Amino acid sequence: QSALTQPASVSGSPGQSITISCTGTSSDIGGYNYVSWYQQHPGKAPKLMIFDVSNRPSGVSNRFSGSKSGNTASLTISGLQAEDEADYYCASYTSSSRGVFGGGTKLTVL
Amino acid sequence: EVQLVQSGAEVKKPGESLKISCKGSGYSFTTYWIAWVRQMPGRGLECMGILYPADSETRYSPSFQGQVTISADKSLSTAYLQWSGLKASDTAIYYCARRASGSYYFDSWGQGTLVTVSS
User: Fold this and answer.
1) pLDDT tens-place string over residues B51-100
2) Which residues of chain A make contact with B105, given a CB cutoff of 8 A?
3) Do B110 and A45 touch (CB under 8 A)?
4) B41, A25, A77, B101: CA torsion to nearest 10
5) Which of A9, A15, A72, B107 is the Cys-Cys partner for B100 at CB 3.0 to 4.6 Å?
6) Please, is A77 exposed, middle or buried when counting C-beta atoms within 10 Å of its C-beta (0-12, 13-18, 19+)?
7) Cβ–Cβ contacts within 10 Å for residue B12, how many?
């Protein structure tokens, strides 16, 4: 299956909000409410930020939120902070009973 | 506390074989799927395949089918990823990750194993 489509980069100033999109098909994002988002700082393992489209794990700031419309999922980060600068990946379950990641988005906090 | 601890970095030559490991602790190892995820230098995450330790059911992503073997030893609470003939293009960081029960997301990750293949 093809990787989900994410913008290569997004940027924002501290305090602002940004949204990262993740586009798939009816065989993955559009077909299931199994979209998740991961944050990865350089040299570190990915960290789960959002699961099942819009749920936050315990300990993740409520500045992070997720949503989905049709074949596109979105991650919104409000009140941007310097520590949010990282790579972000979306992922989805697929109709072939496997998982697929997005290509990743580099977030720069200006 | 759920932990996945991976084996250390490896440097291998093309054509050599390799098996890296991922030991789970702090939970019932056999009842959660374990995935292996590749990250090539400067690139994104790729799901290679996923295994259910209780019965060793394994599902490979198409790009990795026949290229690697995923297995587990329940008695050691350890999952493995192995190659029989490494290529330079296998140079990457490999992560294991636990799939949450009843859904499809990865709630715990290993620290990653860097595999370098060079002549």
Assistant:
1) 999 999 999 999 999 999 999 999 999 999 999 999 999 999 999 999 99
2) 34, 36, 48, 51-52, 91
3) yes
4) -80
5) B107
6) buried
7) 17
